[in-house]
Write a structure and sequence with these properties.
- With 346 residues, the chain is α/β, with parallel strands linked by helices.
- The chain has three domains: 136 residues, P-loop containing nucleotide triphosphate hydrolases (Rossmann fold, 3-Layer(aba) Sandwich), CATH 3.40.50; 62 residues, Helicase, Ruva Protein, domain 3 (Orthogonal Bundle), CATH 1.10.8; 119 residues, Zinc Finger, Delta Prime, domain 3.
- The chain contains 17 helices and six strands.
- The longest helix has 23 residues.
- The chain is globular.
- The relative contact order is 0.09.
């Protein structure tokens, strides 16, 4: 069953489904849909939550084992499966179909994936999950929708806002929804019940921190290694959460990967950037990145980004900031670590 994100709360009030699939490439909207599901389930007594990260060689048997294990702490639990690759593989497909043949009572599965293409939605494992539960497909907010979306966010925060202020925020964030929400939150702290106008937005911009994750990503995508390193060092000094950078960078590289696929199939840069709804001000940056990196190169960057995520979570050894520096400088076009020298046997 397909459920629109704005109808999700109403659907949850009817009772918990055995499974929820939240799919999309906009981190903020995906996170918000997941939060709605988690809050509703927690209020309904699903107080235990287990999180699984599906990476290479993931053992799907542990999901089945957890699903069928009695909890010592709660009668009902949530199994959250984060699948950044969007595909479970053959073993995962079998495990998911097995799970759905007899879903354990008192257990709900929440699967979080990037945008799933049409062939994936036709697979047996996906249809088994969707047939028994809810598929929440999160679409990005395009250029035309952005002013209305931002105005609704101001209203949700209890703020009135002028048309000029909305347009100024739209221009500033250039499609980054999380940046828009943060801008609105900053403005709400100083609004004091007043109507937000263009002067308020200008003052907020002037008071912003010197560095932002969005400028970091744009600088790396645009191919400026020196400034990329400077911004990253500034963010680290300001105490920025590594996982926040990783989440937004993962979304950016997924978009680049899809566009690189289009280029490899003979599509023009104009066509692939238009299909990906790239904002006009970012078109030149993205085009330069696609000239530097083909799909294979972007895949390697994504693999290194996965290592950063695993380093933060303690799954792999290593310093996350060092790994992240390597990822960003590679994205910016600088090879940080030279290829190992081949030593001829004697």
């Amino acid at each position: 069953m397909k459920v629109y994100p704005d109808k999700l709360e109403r659907e949850l009030k009817r009772g918990a489904a055995p499974v929820y699939i939240v799919s999309g490439d906009e981190p903020l909207l995906v996170q918000e849909s997941c939060d709605v599901i988690r809050r509703s389930l927690k209020a309904a007594g699903y107080t235990e939550r287990q999180v699984f990260h599906v990476e290479a060689n993931f053992d799907w048997e542990q999901v089945l084992f957890s699903a069928n294990s009695l909890s010592l702490f709660a009668d009902q639990k949530l199994l959250e499966i984060r699948m950044p690759g969007g595909k479970p593989g053959d073993k995962g497909a079998v495990a998911l179909k097995t799970y759905m043949e007899n879903p354990p009572e008192g257990t709900v599965m929440l699967m979080v994936t990037p945008r799933l293409d049409a062939p994936t939605q036709r697979t047996k494992w996906f249809q088994a999950l969707e047939g028994a539960g809810a598929f929440v497909q999160v679409w990005p907010v395009d250029v035309k929708q952005m002013p209305r979306w931002i105005k609704e966010r101001f209203n949700r925060a209890g703020l009135e806002v002028t048309h000029e202020a909305v347009e100024m925020v739209v221009s500033r964030v250039e499609g980054n929804l999380l940046a828009a929400v943060q801008e609105i939150e900053r403005l709400s702290l100083t609004a004091d019940g007043r109507r937000i106008d263009a002067d308020d937005v200008m003052e907020s911009v002037a008071d912003n921190a010197r560095y932002s994750i969005y400028s970091l990503i744009d600088t790396a995508v645009g191919g400026d290694p020196a400034r990329t390193l400077k911004i990253l060092q500034g963010l680290r000094a300001e105490g920025t959460d590594v996982l926040h950078i990783v989440a937004l960078l993962a979304s950016e590289t997924r978009t680049l990967a899809r566009m690189a696929d289009g280029v490899s199939k003979g599509q023009s840069l104009d066509a692939v950037t238009k299909n990906a709804r790239i904002w006009p001000k970012r078109k030149d940056l993205v085009s330069r990145a696609l000239k530097r990196h083909n799909r294979h190169a972007i895949d390697r960057i994504q693999q290194k980004l996965t290592r950063v995520d695993q380093s933060v979570k303690g799954i792999l050894p290593g310093d996350a900031w060092t790994e992240l520096t390597d990822v960003l400088l590679n994205l910016a076009g600088k090879r940080v670590v030279p290829e190992p020298t081949r030593i001829r046997s004697v």
